[in-house]
Design brief:
Layout: H1 15-25, H2 28-46
Length: about 50
């Protein structure tokens, strides 16, 4: 849609907060998925890199 801004989700996630998320939820896969999704979105939207 023209003029619509893209959104980067999970912007506040850091290595430390991802570790804490894994501890609090007891689900390391969820924490890793959150971390990966953030970096994938950041690379595509902010850096303009194409997904492979």
């Amino acid at each position: 849609m023209p003029g619509m801004m893209d959104t980067v989700l999970n912007l506040g996630i850091t290595c430390r907060s991802a570790q804490r998320l894994a501890q609090e939820t007891g689900n390391a896969a969820f924490a890793v998925d959150t971390w990966v999704r953030f970096w994938r979105m950041f690379a595509e939207i902010v850096l303009g890199l194409e997904a492979t």
